[in-house]
User: Which sequence fits this backbone?
């Protein structure tokens, strides 16, 4: 094994996970091809999921929610945070790879071109700012990855389900029943998902954004539910309605990468306006 796969950063860059997901859900792929994801995944991605599934326990999630939920990381504007996120430099080819800000702008521009409401465009702009968790020192497995509920049985719709055998929670019978620590249709707000950039950006922005945008941010990596229909037994009717929005958002996140690089000078006035319409100058992170 190479040294790289033994540490907490098996991915060369966080985007390797995003690319893996986009590849998995490439339009036109047959169900068989889709099921074959494990064969197509490169070893760094596989190692990343091994860590993610082994270490995301209920206990860990509760600790991270308490730690970051208080928003004590200081005040910053949306733009300052975007600049900060952009310091997540990767060592891959700068010509083919987009900066973090470019991914955000490509997503939001694609949403804007389709004529969606301003809050929807804004959701695109901020959806991955939670990846700054990485700059706070969180390991990759606690920043990205398809999210899933902890404290109840793991769905077989989660990628690499076999890796859950190494998670200490899999030995806790109470956590391995269908409902686990939850009640039927208790609502996703009462369900703890594996910790990562979705929950963090939701926590930071929720009081400024309309409910559908909150759902888009909070659940955009919850592929087992929004792509595969898993965990409906924990969802309310309102969750189901709001997941229509999560599904509407997902293609922009996945498929806007190939588009032309956004011309920042041209679009800057629109986005400065948009951000100040919803957010004060600085917010708590
Ligand atoms: Fe994301
Ligand atoms: Fe994204």
Assistant:
């Amino acid at each position: 094994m190479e040294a790289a796969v033994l540490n907490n950063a098996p991915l060369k860059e966080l985007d390797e996970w995003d690319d893996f997901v986009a590849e998995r859900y490439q339009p036109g792929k047959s169900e068989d091809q889709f099921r074959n994801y494990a064969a197509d995944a490169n070893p760094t991605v596989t190692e990343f999921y091994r860590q993610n599934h082994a270490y995301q326990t209920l206990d860990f999630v509760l600790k991270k929610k308490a730690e970051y939920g208080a928003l004590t990381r200081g005040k910053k504007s949306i733009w300052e945070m975007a600049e900060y996120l952009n310091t997540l430099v990767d060592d891959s080819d700068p010509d083919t790879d987009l900066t973090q800000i470019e991914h955000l702008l490509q997503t939001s521009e694609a949403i804007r071109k389709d004529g969606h409401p301003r809050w929807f465009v804004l959701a695109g702009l901020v959806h991955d700012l939670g990846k700054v968790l990485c700059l706070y020192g969180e390991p990759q497995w606690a920043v990205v990855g398809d999210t899933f509920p902890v404290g109840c049985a793991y769905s077989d719709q989660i990628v690499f389900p076999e890796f859950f055998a190494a998670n200490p929670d899999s030995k806790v019978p109470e956590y391995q029943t269908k409902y686990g620590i939850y009640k039927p249709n208790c609502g996703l707000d009462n369900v703890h998902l594996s910790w990562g950039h979705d929950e963090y950006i939701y926590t930071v922005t929720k009081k400024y954004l309309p409910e559908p945008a909150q759902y888009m941010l909070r659940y955009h990596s919850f592929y087992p539910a929004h792509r595969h229909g898993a965990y409906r037994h924990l969802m309310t009717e309102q969750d189901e309605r709001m997941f229509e929005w999560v599904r509407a958002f997902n293609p922009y996140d996945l498929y806007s990468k190939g588009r032309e690089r956004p011309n920042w000078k041209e679009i800057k006035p629109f986005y400065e306006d948009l951000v100040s319409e919803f957010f004060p100058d600085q917010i708590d992170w």
